[in-house]
Amino acid sequence: MKSLTINASQRESVGKKATKALRNAGQVPCVIYGGDTVTHFTAPEIAFNELVYTPNVHTVVIALDNGTKINAILQDIQFHPVTDKILHIDFIEIFDDKPITMEIPFHATGNSRGVKNGGVLRYNLRRIKVKGLASKLPDFIEGDITHLKIGNKLYVTDVASEDYTILHPDNTVICMVKTSRNVIADDEDEEEETEAAEGEETAAPAEDSSAE
Q: What's the stated role of this polypeptide (predicted)?
């Protein structure tokens, strides 16, 4: 899995006034849990763009101004309800020998047979929750949908790997091919046209008998 480095400054004061002053200066208050100690730090809001505003997932190296480097993953993030500015970020420290839990993006590969025949691919999961060592977790999880016909489903068991444990029930559906509404609408129109034509054919003999 790819890693990003964020240059940060360790915080000494964590009171409300200090936090407000940091935000006014364009800094984001952050905290790292999971290690022997809790670490408070700040970094410019722009430093988190590649971490937050992306569909991809990354591990993070927090490079503090005192020379300390901490490996972590994003745990939680708070946004301002009106401006959407980042208010606070929580990180969890990670270690080489301890598994972590993350939601990994799912990428479909191949061309579904059902989609070729007019079906539509519908997603139930865009991300799959897994647990494993950070060094073995992929940037994304791939699943081949070539064999899916209309009505077929791809389950989480279809993308299982020895590198991680999937934290969903085995019957959890990732995606499925469903019948297109347009196809249904076209079929209904054809049925209505057929019924109308049959009605006209039935009415025609009645007109002929009355003329006699």
A: This is one of the proteins that binds to the 5S RNA in the ribosome where it forms part of the central protuberance.
Residue 138 has pLDDT above 60, yes or no: yes
Evaluate if residue 188 carries a pLDDT over 70.
Answer: no
Nearest one of 97, 172, 87 to 129, comparing CA atoms? 172
- CATH architecture designation of domain 101-182: Beta Complex (2.170)
Q: CA Rg, the chain, in Å?
A: 28
Tokens matching residue 128: 């799959």
CA distances from 133 to 74, 137, 162 (A): 15, 6, 11
CA–CA–CA angle 101, 104, 108 (5° rounding): 150
**DSSP states of 21-72:** HHHHTTEEEEEEESSSS-EEEEEEGGGGHHHHSSSS--EEEEEETTS-EEEE
Q: How confident is the model at residue 65 (pLDDT cuts 50, 70, 90)?
A: very high
Q: Which of 1, 127, 133 is nearest to 58 (CA)?
A: 1
- Location of each CATH 2.40.240.10 domain in the chain: 3-94
Q: Band of the pLDDT at 17, cuts 50, 70, 90?
A: confident
CATH number of 3-94: 2.40.240.10
Where does the pLDDT of residue 182 fall: very low under 50, low under 70, confident under 90, or very high at 90 and above?
Answer: low
